[in-house]
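Appendix C reproduces, verbatim, an entry submitted by the partner laboratory led by Prof. M.T., so that reviewers can inspect both the input and the predicted structure.
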Amino acid sequence: MPKRGKKGQEETEQERRPPDLTLASFLTGSLASQSVQNSSKNSEASTSKTEPELGLLEEQTGTETLGFFVKRTKKGKLPISYENRAKGKKVTVIGNVSGDPSILLQELKKKIGAGGVVRGDCVEIQGDHQAVVESFLKSHRSCLK
């Protein structure tokens, strides 16, 4: 019975041993030339993308703006605050949102898994999620002014 690997560690194709690898073939070096040829074929296949495919990849990597901007405060901090509402409800408020704040709300609701609402130029998320919102906005630097 084969040994199990550690949890969370999966083998990729490159890490696995080729099926025809034996000590004799390893020592003679015949397999080494085959593996070099296979790796060169893989690199050629990955670099032979057409121009439209490359443009599509650039759009998916986040070089385009999402439709909203968050303006920093006068001191350069992110406008994220934490407020207590009626009946003991906690709310994280993101201020100074321009553009379409509903897009920001939609993205944050997906990321955090909590409800929220847009009020004017502010976005409110239910619960105390200051750290998550801050890391989200810092990861989307194109949305910060």
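The chain has five helices and six strands. Additional entries are available on request from the coordinating office.
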